[in-house]
């Protein structure tokens, strides 16, 4: 267990050092901008490592849940655990996130700690990391566009649509299938299954928020379209009168 503690400490120090370096070289952009750069980097790194674990290194999480942790799985979880501890502390200190995001970080930290302590179900944790982080680059891109004044553009529309579609597919449909395989398998421990249910329930909480956002945005676009349509009709009538 001591090497794991040292590994988590080293990764936490690494994420802090990366954030400090960004603040030093890119200080004009602000603390949150640089923290989100760290988040973006972690998201890309986590997706690449866990994709390799799931698709190449194995085992396949849908058919072999509850298996012993491999060294690569442990490394991926240690790296992400260090990041989640860093980001959780940052969010609490700067008070930038709500209870739902803090709950997500808390459950991620506890889930990884439990998996490392048990020495099994690492493949499920890596699969959850992959599904959770694959939408992260789009989420951060959306924030960067918004705070650089380029969100109300075609690129902003594309990012929003891709984020919603990818979230629904990965977190709801693929995540639901993963949870079903976890629950029917006799190998994973009961507490791991409870953690899977909790993470999937949290995905639905996020899904409700995303659904509200999509509804508000579609309503706004419809109102703008109706306004343009009415203006076109009025202009057309004015031309006929002339």
TrEMBL record:
**InterPro entries linked to this entry:** TLC-dom, TLCD5
Q: How does it sit in the membrane?
A: Multi-pass membrane protein
Gene Ontology CC: membrane
Protein name (database record):
TLC domain-containing protein
Where, per UniProt, does this protein localize? Membrane
Coiled-coil-forming residues are: none
The TLC domain extends over: 28-219
TM ranges are 6-25, 37-54, 74-92, 99-119, 161-183, 190-215
Report which superkingdom the organism of origin falls in.
Eukaryota
Q: Could you tell me which species this protein originates from?
A: Cirrhinus molitorella (mud carp)
Q: Which UniProt keywords apply?
A: Membrane, Transmembrane, Transmembrane helix
> PROSITE patterns of this UniProt entry?
TLC (PS50922)
């Amino acid at each position: 267990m001591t090497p794991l503690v040292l590994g988590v400490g080293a990764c936490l120090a690494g994420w802090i050092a990366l954030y400090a370096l960004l603040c030093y070289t890119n200080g004009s952009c602000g603390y949150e901008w640089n923290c989100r750069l760290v988040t973006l980097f972690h998201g890309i790194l986590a997706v690449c490592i866990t994709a390799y674990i799931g698709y190449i290194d194995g085992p396949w999480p849908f058919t072999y849940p509850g298996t012993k942790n491999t060294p690569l799985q442990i490394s991926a979880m240690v790296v992400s655990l260090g990041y989640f501890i860093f980001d959780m502390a940052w969010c609490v200190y700067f008070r930038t996130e709500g209870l739902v995001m803090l709950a997500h970080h808390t459950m991620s930290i506890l889930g990884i700690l439990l998996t490392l302590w048990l020495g099994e179900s690492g493949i499920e944790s890596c699969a959850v990391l992959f599904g959770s982080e694959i939408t992260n680059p789009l989420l951060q891109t959306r924030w960067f566009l918004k705070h650089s004044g380029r969100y109300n553009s075609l690129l902003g529309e594309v990012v929003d649509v891709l984020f919603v579609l990818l979230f629904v597919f990965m977190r709801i449909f693929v995540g639901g299938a993963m949870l079903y395989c976890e629950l029917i398998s006799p190998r994973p421990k009961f507490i791991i299954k409870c953690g899977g249910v909790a993470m999937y329930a949290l995905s639905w909480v996020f899904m409700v928020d995303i659904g509200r956002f999509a509804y508000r945005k579609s309503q706004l676009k419809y109102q703008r379209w109706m306004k343009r349509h009415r203006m076109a009709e009025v202009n057309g009538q004015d031309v006929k009168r002339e």
